[in-house]
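During the second half of the funding period, the structural biology subgroup turned its attention to how the target accommodates small molecules. The most pressing case was EPU, which had performed well in the primary screen but for which no bound structure existed. We therefore specified the complex as follows and requested a full 3D prediction, including the ligand pose.
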Amino acid sequence: MDRIRIRGGRPLSGEIKVGGAKNAALPLMAAGMLTDDRLILSNVPRLADIATMTLLLEQHGLAVEPLTEDGRMLSIGGGIANTEAPYDIVRKMRASILVLGPLLARAGEARVSLPGGCSIGTRPVDLHLKGLEQMGARFDLDGGYVDGKVDGRLHGARIVFPFVSVGATENLLMAAALAEGETVLANAAREPEIGDLASCLVAMGARIDGIGTDKLVIQGVDQLHAAEHDIIPDRIETGSYACAAAISGGSVFLRNARLEHLGATVRILREAGVEIAQEDGGLMVTRLNGLHGADVMTEPYPGFPTDMQAQFMALMSVAEGASMVTETIFENRFMHVPELNRMGARINVHGASAIVRGVPCLQGAPVMATDLRASLSLILAGLAARGETVVNRVYHLDRGYEAVEQKLAACGADIERIS
Ligand code: EPU
């Protein structure tokens, strides 16, 4: 199994190209099921999760073809021939649940393995199921699978989410695009990835109002058609490399990064002493002086993202003063804390909050990645640490960060992948 070895202490300097957003690409690929025509996606990141989604779409009978040698442009088409999403694929990636809405809207039936929990929380899908029920679907649980059926066609409904869910908003948005009549999604997620999905659906012929707000109004259409769509840059990859520049005391230009997608991340990083400037074609991130502790609480967009919490905590572990990091989205997203503490960080967890007392320096150590974002937080700690850090279980990292060791090495980090 691959590991990443880092020898810390080198300030980063140079340029990193930010790729297409994983969490936009996955629902956009599922949207390819909404038509038999071709959906062409560009700026597709090269990640293990994209390979898993490709496998799932192929299992449903669709053709997923790379149109360029580097695989960054994909054609998806051909229509649904099989409505089962098997456990073997779903267990690898929870975002597989995003095929449920499209399957019910197009085929009137779906048999999708329930994703189950994962290392960051229990992650139920009740909001997806309840919303689809309101639109006319019926579900039975059978052997770990949800069996969904629709008599005729899904119909519009007024769905008020009791709390914000990115995945449920996406699933219901896709289903509503082809439902009969009007659907209102109230208290919908506003993440930039939702806006990206909605604008692709509009290009496919969907009628959606309120894009970018928490109230989406969808007038269902009979069918959708071919379209081309360029995926937005990954705001979490952007924030992660901004933390890398900051923790190393360097200066990195993040090509393609968009300030307007970063929400509270920019404000908090600036509060901690990181300079972020919009320039032509990207963002310049610099840290010249010391870092100060800053408090954050994770919230739905535009609040501080849970997907940046672990990386920010690594940064705060070497800031001057104390920081309080509160996680409100997932109940178990502090698995990186004991690993960071093994490197000399001083972090105590009390319920949903962690108190981080900054230390002058971390020390390299062998550590274990527990999930995608935790993996990156350990790499960040390794960049700042004295000596050698080896991050084990790198397969988590490969799900969501493309060529991380190459991107960081090109900016002067002493980092390599070892098999
Ligand atoms: N929730 C429910 N019931 C539901 C759906 C969600 O209780 O039916 C709960 C979840 O357990 C969680 C909260 O609601 O406590 C929010 O979950 P949400 O549905 O918003 O998350 P998701 O759609 O499963 C996406 C991202 C995650 C990201 C979250 C929050 C994708 C593929 N995944 O997950 O990304 O953390 O939104 O922003 O878009 C990552 O990339 O590392 C990652 C975990």
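Two results from this model are relevant to the next phase. The pocket of EPU is lined by residues 23, 26, 94-95, 121, 123-128, 165-168, 305-307, 329-330, 372-373, 400 (CB under 6 Å). The radius of gyration is 21 Å.
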